[in-house]
Amino acid sequence: MISNFITMNGYGLYVWLSFSAVFFSCAVVYFKTKKTLKKYEQEFLAELQTLTLEEKNKALESSKVAQQILATSLKVS
Amino acid sequence: MFKFFSSSNIYLLIQKLIKFINSIFVLILVIGLTFALVLSPPDYLQGDSVRIMYVHVPSAWLGLACFSVITFLSVLNFIFKIKSFYFINKSLAPIGLLFTCLAIVTGSLWGKPTWGTWWAWDARLTSMLALMLFYFFYILTFKLLSNKELIIKVSSVIAIIGSINLPIIKYSVEWWTTLHQPASVRIIGSSSIHSEMLLPLMVMLLVFLLYAALIFLMKYKTEIIRVKKKNIKRN
Question: What is the ipTM of this complex?
Answer without folding.
Answer: 0.90
